[in-house]
Amino acid sequence: MASCGAYLEKLNALQDVQNIVAEYGYPIRIYLDTESGMTRDKYNSIEKRETTDTERILDIRAYPLNFSPTTRDIEKAGLKEKAEVICYTAMKDWTDRGYNFKDLNITKATAEVRGDTYLIKDKAENSQYLDEFLYITLGLFRK
Question: What pTM value is reported for the model?
Answer without folding.
Answer: 0.80
